[in-house]
Amino acid sequence: MWIVATCTYHADRETGRSCTRCGRPACSDCLRDAPVGSHCRDCIREGARSIRRPTFRRTLVRTPVTAALIAVNLAVFLAVEAQRAPTPGRLDLLGRLALFGPAVAEGEWYRLVTSGFLHFGLMHIGFNMLALYRLGGLFESTFGRLPYLGLFTASLLAGSFGAILLSPDAITGGASGAVFGIIAAVAVVQRRNGVAVLQSDVGGLLVINLLLTFLFPGISIGGHLGGLLGGAAVAAATPHPPLSSTGVMSSLGVASAISVAAVVGAVLRAGM
Fold first, then answer.
1. How far apart are CA 65 and CA 37, in angstroms?
2. Helix (H, G, I), strand (E, B) or coil at 175
3. How confident is the model at residue 116 (pLDDT cuts 50, 70, 90)?
4. Hey, is 39 helix, strand or coil?
5. Span 77-99, mean pLDDT?
6. Cα 239 from Cα 246, distance rounded (Å)
7. pLDDT(180) > 90
8. Alpha-carbon distance values, 266 to 110, 177, 178, 179, 224 (Å)
9. Which overall architecture, per CATH, does domain 54-270 show?
10. For the chain, which residues make up each domain, given as ranges?
11. How far apart, in Å, do the first and last CA atoms of the chain sit?
């Protein structure tokens, strides 16, 4: 026997949808599309009361994980740029941290993580940090710090696995795998809440980036697709309401499983 929830505001209306923010069931008339999912009447009113003029500083203060990730990426970028001339006989910082299959096979597993904080030029880091600021901060504020950190980690490692799987001998780096994972996670949440993803800004961003991935040379197809699949898997396994203890533990559990599988897969592939 199936039990169908009824709308919180209309007891006579059955519904299969719920508010992304609070998890209460609501019908289509009582839900409004939000950047991530859909919000009910009460959450919309609560959000409207707390709205203040957004600023870069205030946004990062409210999303400390996103702020920390952006800071680390910028710090690594500046350190790499400052060490353009390597010491004779030694690799420069980029060479020591970038993803490279033979080095991973020799035991330098840390490259699976450090490569996600390397960037090749201002345009590369600029686009990734903008996406991380906008979508990463959005996911963090909606689903919480721990699920967001789990999503970022799983997407980054899945991207590293994808890069080694398709191009084990290439030298790669960048937060694009993690960014693709975040975009995919937001798209999955939107789809689950009845939003037409391809008609949303997130859907358009996803399509454009996938086209760029395949049309332009020098882009890690495996890294982008690996991160995409990793992020989508984490979001798909996160139940409603996402901020409940069950939701958080489920999200972290799946993220941990994907991270371990990605590391094992990348090491095995690199050693082939």
1. 21
2. coil
3. very high
4. strand
5. 76
6. 8
7. yes
8. 12, 14, 16, 19, 15
9. Up-down Bundle (1.20)
10. 1-51, 54-270
11. 51
